[in-house]
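Troubleshooting: if your tokenizer reports a length mismatch, compare your output against this known-good record of 291 residues.
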Amino acid sequence: MNPILADLLHVLELERIEQDIFRGESRDIGAPQVFGGQVLGQALSAASQTVKDRVVHSLHAYFLRRGDFNASIVFHVDRSRDGGSFSARRVVAIQHGRPIFTLSCSFQVPEEGFEHQVSMPEVPEPEGLADAQTLYSGEMPGIPEKIQRFLTRKRPFEFRPVDPINFLRPEKRDPVKSVWLRATDALPDIDQIHRVLLAYVSDYELLGTAALPHGLRFGHDDVQMASLDHAMWFHRPPRVDEWFLYTSDSPAAQGGRGLARGMFFSRDGTLMASTAQEGLIRVRRRDGSPD
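Known-good structure output:
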């Protein structure tokens, strides 16, 4: 297996240190703090290890503090309820003695029911699009070092944006975005792994959609962005080692916050999951005050 993807699976697996208490490592992906998708995926992994014969169908999370990727994270799972069809779990992620993240999630016994879904947008196929690292490598000389570090670091997923952003000269555009993704190697046929990995990657590409109408030059305009909360709903079993489309839009931004919504479609148009996130979007003036 691709070593970067294998390492991510290791990070998401967690170490059980007590009943319903787990410990996880962190990785530096080029951001100044622990990647939010990592903590989200680890917390879901911890909760999933306390449930049998049920699959996660929804989760709601809050990011409370920046995570330190030089330190381990402890995850405490509360078994809130086990009913006839549903199980509820609450997870608190703790680092340096303080909670940095909370997650509430619900699991369900698989069952049949009414079905409908929206249609997948018409976009070019992934084979005709360039990989994000290839696209952005030509812009590197003019991009701030901290942005270069994030864009050039090898990832466990391939990203092929449908309408790439120009980081040097961004234009104001509609808050709509699509990107094809897939894991860099084949994965085991274990449903829980694909759901946890989808949660992990859902934190990429999402909040930036709310910045598109404003033409922000990341790294140049002293833009401060951070995830505040995150929600997901799993509709059908995902498969993340095959191409899938991540579409997102942003209905509103106000008060230093932006809201973004996303949907994940398999290549055949099946809606696998939906997500939503509100995050901090703030531009500071040179005197340090918010714009």
